[in-house]
């Protein structure tokens, strides 16, 4: 490729290191926000077994992270699932996988930014500003624009900011967990505290529908780690570093979630959490005042930092996927434009941000509850494209799964088990959300729950867009499924 063509077709190689990809992978999950959003509902459904549900939810995430690692080893494409599924299973499945990833960013960016703004304002004691809907939404749009500009301005700067934000977030969470557990064992808890037990880690203790509901919440809590792999073209030693960053992200999240969830359940007791489950992410601030007193601002800033960091990193998978799709003519050419100076996908990044802002403003005009239903619909998309990736891994490597026990379990059986678990959860979620009473708003849209309607609309829109683009530009659909290059699999460093 000619040197003068590079800015038009490639991202900036070697822009970030392994540690940068790791921090972005962790921040994309927004640990403080995600844990705050699920722990109350988990405790309401499963009692003291809530930490066990987070442990069980880790299993399919780790198995799918293994698929990401091995697929990235042979195809360092920023489109990840889109590119890999296209290679393994053909263009139709690949296009739908890419569409699902792009839509996740649209659904969640506005909510993350809104949470970041609201918690920052409350942390500074500006509760009246946070309660002013018009002001909060205006600040939310500004924050999205600022985070988008930082994404476009260069991956190096984004990575440095993410390193600072994850450090602050983890420190805030550890302070909260440490003080909470200390007060439990010192018998100074202001609530009905319970001393932790190893039995809490048994997810099956929840039983029945509580197990299913808890696992669905757990999948949402872990979602986002693959942002590290979307940066593969911009990471040093991309064949291994990006995939390892994704795997280590899930492990670090597991440790963080277990320690904090045990601290929360132990300090508050299950009844308090069940009574306040509908507060969602505000469960942490409620406990912060109980645990830390006048230092409760620490938790406000933990959640705010998490949401702001994730606002930026969640744009990355959607924009890089759109770039990858455009390069293979699965989307209009303009989405593949690379900024000549910053070497980032500027057009696709701004498009993702623009659509996300529009979605945020429209859905909040319907109701605040509709915004929460939008996040529930997100879980359907997550389960779909994660499961698709796991299947693609086994299919792409199918001629090499019997080469060794390592390949059989880590590349074949493991990802397929992870995919099977996610498909099961996907169907359980669809069945659950068919009943409007199970949605956050508990209203009926066309006889179904709003999250399921949102998911169906996104799916139908994607299928229609795919067929329209197939007619306009059929080049991408000439691609045929293939298998991994044997020379790559048999190399010494594989």
Molecular structure report:
The chain is mainly alpha-helical and about 500 residues long. It has a single domain, classed as Amino acid/polyamine transporter I, CATH 1.20.1740. Helices cover about 75% and strands about 0% of the residues. The two termini are about 25 Å apart.
Descriptive key words:
494 residues, 19 helices, mainly alpha, 0% strand
Sheet-strand content, in percent, reads under 5%
What's the CATH class label? Mainly Alpha
CATH homologous group name: Amino acid/polyamine transporter I
Give the CATH topology.
Amino acid/polyamine transporter I
Q: Count the helices. How many?
A: 19
Q: Provide the number of structural domains.
A: 1
Largest sheet: none
Report the CATH architecture.
Up-down Bundle
Please bin the fraction of helical residues.
over 70%
- Alpha-carbon Rg, integer: 22 Å
> If you average the pLDDT, what whole number results?
86
The class by helix and strand makeup works out as mainly alpha
Low-confidence stretches: 1-7
So what's the overall shape?
Answer: globular
Count of individual beta strands: 0
- Straight-line distance between termini: 27 Å
Give the ordered list of helices and strands: HHHHHHHHHHHHHHHHHHH
Report a brief summary of the structure.
By secondary structure, this protein is mainly α. It contains 19 helices and no strands.
